[in-house]
Design a protein that fits this description.
Shape: globular
Number of strands: 10
Mean pLDDT: 93
Low-confidence stretches: 20-28
Largest sheet: 8 strands, mixed
Radius of gyration: 18 Å
Distance between the termini: 35 Å
Strand order of the largest sheet: 1-2-4-3-5-6-9-10
Structural class: alpha/beta
Strand content: 15-25%
Order of helices and strands: EEEHEHEHEHHHHEEHHEHEH
Length: 286
């Protein structure tokens, strides 16, 4: 994978090229995508396929994840924002559409407030709000896989296919995402590439954050996408309708779109015509 070096660390990147003004140096018609807590850049494949080739779409592995470097420490929204600014510089992008999912939406929101001149539009997918404590319980299956060795890739995939939030929803996007998630060890076993220490520091940092204070400071046009279905149960959605409406009311120039029959994972990694139309309409609006 192509790599860029920012602040003495290397970040793995992937690009779906666009045409015309979406090419290098084109500013706001480039879309830079930020993944979630234990995720990786491949979660954006469905979205990129919906936007390319009209838009240049760039995704990357956050530090501590995927094929990016994994320093011993340095995991917070502020540091991720510094990495993102460095990435835009390396890509020769003065401004871009910034799109984030889950933790990536937290980073995108903070970045838009801290570097308003570098963000033409903002997309927050099932994130950008303070996480209720009980939601961490619902995210436990994703977190608990970290550091665990599985005897084979197929054993790992069999485990994740059976998780409550994915059962009956499996598709080629999830398959690609989880295949990239792991590294093969010398004996043939596999283990997630995500550094456990990174997630531990990240969670401790998130508990000190109060994202709601940034909502009214986001000045660029903003699209909020919400997934209404739960993860472990029918009602444990990451963002409630009340929370989403409150965020939409607080963020100027924002629009809320609820994507029915999706949960925190499948709103991004699925076949969702409503996501495609919402994104394309939002990016094309003047």
């Amino acid at each position: 994978m192509p790599r860029v070096t920012v602040h003495d660390i290397s970040l793995a990147t992937h690009e779906w090229p666009g045409r015309g003004l979406a090419r290098r140096g084109g500013g706001g018609l480039a879309v830079v995508c930020i993944h979630g807590l234990t995720a990786n850049h491949t979660c954006w494949t469905s979205v990129a396929e919906s936007l390319s080739p009209e838009y240049r779409v760039i995704a990357y592995d956050l530090r501590g994840r995927g094929d990016s470097d994994k320093p011993e420490q340095g995991y917070s929204l502020r540091i991720h924002c510094d990495d993102l600014a460095g990435l835009l510089d390396c890509m020769d992008l003065r401004r871009a559409v910034i799109m984030g999912h889950s933790l990536g939406a937290h980073i995108a929101l903070r970045f838009a407030v801290r570097f308003p001149r570098r963000v033409s539009r903002l997309v927050l997918i099932d994130g950008g709000i303070d996480v209720r404590p009980e939601i961490l319980d619902s995210l436990a299956p994703a977190i608990n896989r970290l550091g665990v060795e599985f005897p084979s890739l197929e054993a790992f995939l069999q485990m994740v296919r059976g998780l409550p939030m994915l059962a009956g929803r499996w598709n080629e996007y999830l398959e690609r995402y989880f295949r990239y998630d792991v590294e093969t060890l010398p004996g043939g076993a596999v283990r997630s590439k995500v550094a456990v220490r990174a997630i531990e520091e990240e969670l401790a940092s998130l508990r000190r954050e109060r994202l709601w204070v940034y909502h009214h400071q986001a000045r660029c046009p903003t699209l909020i996408l919400r997934a209404p279905d739960g993860l472990l149960a029918a009602t444990d959605c990451v963002m409630t309708q009340e929370e989403a409406q409150a965020m939409a009311q607080a963020i100027p120039k924002s629009r809320l779109v609820v994507v029915p029959h999706t949960n925190h994972y499948t709103v991004l990694m699925g076949h969702n015509p409503k996501v495609r139309s919402a994104l394309r309409n939002f990016l094309a609006a003047r």
